[in-house]
Amino acid sequence: LEDRLRKSDTLNVVGELAAGIAHEIRNPMTALKGFIQLLEGSVKDDFSMYFNVIKSELNRIESIITEFLVLAKPQAIHFEQNSIVKIMKDTMELLNAQAIFSNVQMELITEGEIPSIYCEPNQIKQVFINILKNAIEVMPGGGKVLAVLKMNGPDQLCISIRDEGNGIPEDKLKRLGEPFYTTKDRGTGLGLMVSYKIIEEHRGKVKVESQVGKGTTFCITLPAGNNEV
Ligand code: ADP
Ligand code: MG
């Protein structure tokens, strides 16, 4: 428990720092993007490759900042009873274009009645985005992502998200959620850290099961019922 408390303390400090830095970086970034666009229109085509690199690197900075901001003390945090089924459907719709592009098919199955859950919908959506995105990214040649929602008794909602990607070796499993841990060329290594923090704040848990070469399943449990978080 002490370990967990310390970890969550650290996350709060990181969150406040992140908010400050993120806002400071956003403003100059906007200026940079604007002027680069102007420049691009007024120089020779030979430089288009440079501009592509500049723009892609700026986008990368932006995605790091965006993920960091989620960590930050949320401005408009609003816990209320929400349908997790709807949030999952919305998220899948949001990612549908990316999935189709990667030839990935997303499916949602609900088993039995799923009651609404006391949660912060935008944050839960962020968690689903992060995990579904990872699932899509881990299947560059296409495949299937299956999300299953079901109750585990009356007090616990169980959300599992399974992919058919290359899996995670046993010794790497414990590194998931570590800030900046990524195995991707263009990864930030922040998505899971943010997701774990959000689930922790909802008094939920995340478990990962993986088989190398076969796929990975993220199992999220959230407390159900009307108890405040
Ligand atoms: P990023 O996606 O930017 O790398 P994340 O925090 O989302 O950062 O994920 C961290 C790492 O965890 C990934 O780089 C990958 O190695 C591993 N990972 C996450 N989800 C999966 C998955 N579904 N299958 C295999 N590996 C995964
Ligand atoms: Mg990710």
Automatic annotation (TrEMBL):
Taxonomic lineage from the root: Bacteria, Bacillati, Bacillota, Bacilli, Bacillales
UniProt superkingdom: Bacteria
Protein name in the entry: histidine kinase
Histidine kinase domain ranges (all copies): 20-226
Residues of the full protein shown: 506 to 734 of 734
